[in-house]
Amino acid sequence: MTIKPQIRMRKLAVALALLCGAFAQAPAQAQNGVYLCTNASGGRELTDSYRPGCKTLNLPNSIPAPSRARQSGAPRAPAAPVSTPTDFPKVDNAQQKARDNDRREILNDELRGEEKKLAEARKEFNGGEPERQGNERNFAKYQERVEMMRDSISRTEKNIEALKREIANIK
Questions:
Q1: How far apart are CA 19 and CA 83, in angstroms?
Q2: Helix and strand totals (H; E) in the chain
Q3: pLDDT, tens digit, 9 for 90 and up, residues 59-69
Q4: What's the pTM value of the predicted model, to 2 decimals?
Q5: Which of 77, 112, 159, 162 is the most buried (most CB within 10 A)?
Q6: Which one, of 31, 42, 23, lies nearest residue 68 by Cα?
Q7: DSSP-assigned letter for residue 33
Q8: Is 149 exposed, middle or buried, given 0-12, 13-18 or 19+ CB atoms closer than 10 A?
Q9: What's the rounded Cα separation, in Å, for the pair 45 and 22?
Q10: Which is nearest to 54 in space by CA: 26, 73, 14, 78?
Q11: 24-25 and 44-47 beta bridge pairing
């Protein structure tokens, strides 16, 4: 049994109203709260913005919505600058240079491995027409393998690009 969203919303609004007690008329200016409004077609809706004709729901332990000024992108106070603690470990330039060189060498090894993997994959791919294997009597299986090879080649190319960017970013 499915209940239409409008009926479900009405039932929810009625249940909320019964649980919360009597409705109080909202003052002329808007407040933070939850309001029960009736739209032009007669449907009821819950909202957090006051409109004429809406009734305020008194919800115990409710958390008010953030103010409109904060939601509209009002400038925030600048954050205090973060300082490095005095006991924070420091690395001298020679040691940092050695670490950077080690990192560069590791990335270069990975790059060579990915380039080798790409060359092998392209050779096996054979320009989009790899040799059929014995278990690929069904053409759909062959096409699936070709598509997996294409994806693998594309992923390897992206890995190579990322490794080259990382190597270029090392100081």
A1: 52
A2: 4, 4
A3: 777 666 666 65
A4: 0.47
A5: 159
A6: 31
A7: S
A8: middle
A9: 17
A10: 26
A11: unpaired
